Structures are given as C-alpha cells and as structure tokens.
Amino acid sequence: MLVEGDKSLLGEKLAVILNSSQSKTPCGNDSWVARTAAAARRIIDSGFVMITSTGIVTWELLVHLAAATSGRQVILCPVTGEGLEKELFDITVADFGLDPNKCAMLFVGSPLRGRSPKKNWPGRDGQAVAMAQKIYPISIRPGGRLDTMIKSNADSGKIDDRFHIEYAPAVYRPTHYDISGIKLDVENWDFITHWTKTRHGPWPGETRSAFYGRLLASDNRYPNSAFDTLINIVRERKIRASSDKIRDSFPAIGFSECPPIDILKMLRWCPRRVNWNFEPYGIAVKRPVAEKMGAKPVIYGIDEDYRKFSESAKPFFQNRGGKAVDWRGEREWRHIGDFDFNQVPDDKIMFYVWRRIEADYLRKLTSCPVMSFEGD
After folding, report:
1. Interatomic CA distance for residues 70 and 79, integer angstroms
2. CA nearest 61: which of 184, 215, 179?
3. Domain residues for 234?
4. 103-107 and 73-77 strand pairing
5. Nearest to 208, CA basis, from 301, 103, 96, 304
6. 286 contacts: CB under 8 Å, gap ≥ 6
7. φ and ψ of 26, to 5 deg
8. Tell me: the pLDDT tens digits for 266-291?
C-alpha cells in the first residue's frame, strides 16, 4: 500500500461523505453543496479524519472543505502513481493549498496506462466505504453504486443520515442563444477573436483551492460561466493558455479569424461534453497586432501530415475534420503560451458579450470597446 504524507492518519478515526454525480456547474446554494459543507464541519469538529479524493467535483470539494476548516484528511488517489507518488502528492498539496502535515495520500487504483481514470473510481469508492468508521450520505442516486454500498452497510452502525437529502438528477438546460436577429457591421474585419465558454472546473492558471473557494461563495450562479471567464480575462489583462484538446499537450490559445456573425453560425451544444463548443463572449485583437505577438494561422491537414511537421510547427497543426465536421470553416489561429495584452493599445482590442447589461458591467472594468449582440 503506497502512502505519501502523514501515514499515521490511517490509524485515526475515519469518516467519509458520499454524493452521487451532480451537475457540472454547481453553485454555492445547491442543497448538496450546503449539506456537504455542514457534514464536513461535523466530521472535523468530532475529531475524525476525513476521507477525500480527486477527479470529480463531489470528491474534490471535500479536499477543499477539509483544508478550509484546518481538518485532517486521507486523500484516496484512484491511480497507482506509477513511480510518481511524491510528485502527485506535492502537486495536490500545492493545488488545494494543503498543510502537508495534516494529510496523507493513499494510492488505491490500478495502473493508468491505456485506461481512463474513471475506470478506477468504483474501486476508490469501495475503498472509502470500507475504511470509514462513519459514513455520511448526502445526495445519493437510488439504485446507483453508492446506494448499493450504503445499503450493504445498513446494519454496521456506520451510517449517519442527518445530512441526507433527496437526490435530484442534474438537468442541463443550455442557455438559448438566438442569433437570428443579430446584425453587425463588420466591414473590413481585421481581428482575430478568442471566444470563451463555461469552464467545468478551474480556469487555466487557477488553483483548485481558489476555484472551490469561489464556488462555495457563488450563491445561485456558477462562478466559471463564459461571461465570468471573459471578466477574468479583462481583470488579468491576459488570456491564459491551455493544453486542452491540443495534440501533444502544447499550451495554446485558440482564435478565429471569422467575423462574429459568421462564427456564431457554428455555435452548437455538445451533449457529450455537456457544454457549448464556444459561447458569444469574446476578446477580439487586431490581426496584425496579434501576429506581431506570435499568433499564427493553424495548418489544416490529416493525421498522417502531423508526423512530417517540425517541432516548432506541430502546435499549429489542426485536423481538418471529415464529412460530419469540417474544422477549416473556423479559420483558426493559435498563440503558444499566455497572451498578455498589457502592451496592446486599447483601440486594438474589442470585447463581445451577449447581453446589454453585461456590456454595461464590462465597460466599468475596461476602456476598450465593448459590443453587445443585443445592440446598444
């Protein structure tokens, strides 16, 4: 059994909070969030060590709650670590702002190579239930895996139902963006635009400690919406690079050369990702300025072409797609690394938002032009 951190915590009284899968865009006032926070306080105040984990919001929230209340925790890592146990522990400590003297990381999964981390989650959940002397069910899907585990422990004396609530399945109702009436004057368009979307989890460069702290304080609004993401860009005066969906994990930022009215026609909801491909919130930068700062158009091709690219050109490769989707219509550009626009004149940048009220708010934060698709 591989353990990093304070191994003595494994010999203490252990308690776990259980939640079935919840919405990917939770808010601080969600019942399961509030009850989970209350249960965490109960565990810490009772002198128990909390069992936590990573990989999904219902588990990661526990890591943050234990740290925020100066509690002790055993973090179940659902992979073996494959020789990187110390590095994974240090990364988790830094990301969640943990006191390394108040936590231990127990590696309970099987090797990650060739498999999704999700494959290890059932084993992780079973290990948590088996280790705990006290189990607090919160929002549990009837008939689900956790429900079965809880029922199998019904006579063990472990179950404490005081924080339990009825399970409410996550219902995703995407915002309706009606683009039929939009008219924009984009004659002589000479910008490239980075479009934002709702971010499931921390923004690039944001710690999980900061993200979960903002989530708990978010009341009835998910804190990393597309508009919030744009606000964060304005405040930082920086677009942070991400390696998401970039081959070989190059940190990059995507832009589109298309005028807004053209790119909005490509807006679509992606059920598998439970998100939009992008949303009508963006920062447009004059193309010559962006090019001077290192932005370049991507090179569309097929997978076989990628091997022929030089290392410096590989970050700009994009599969052109097939019959179902032809990505060339996006006319994508990329910038490698963060795009810091502190040195860019305000008249070379323009912001786009969906609603007038959002434009009014953003104008208080920037002297750059702000356009609303609702009009002014």
Report:
1. 26
2. 215
3. 191-372
4. parallel
5. 96
6. 190, 191, 348, 349
7. -75, 160
8. 999 988 889 999 999 999 999 999 99
Q: For residues 32 and 139, is the Cβ–Cβ distance under 8 A?
A: yes
Residues in the chain: 376
Per residue in 10-21, pLDDT (tens digit) is: 999 999 999 999
205 shares its domain with 127: no
- For residue 253, tell me if it sits in a domain: yes
**Alpha helices in 46-165, H assignment, sequence order:** 57-68, 85-96, 121-131, 145-152
Question: Where does a domain end: 132, 152, 172?
Answer: 152
183: in domain: no
CA distances in angstroms from 217 to 29, 203, 226, listed in the order given? 8, 17, 18
Residue with tokens 């006579």: 155
DSSP 169: -
Same domain, yes or no, for 199 and 115? no
105, β-bridge pairs: 4, 75
- Contact (Cβ atoms closer than 8 angstroms) between residue 40 and residue 15: no
Identify whether residues 195 and 146 lie together within a single domain: no
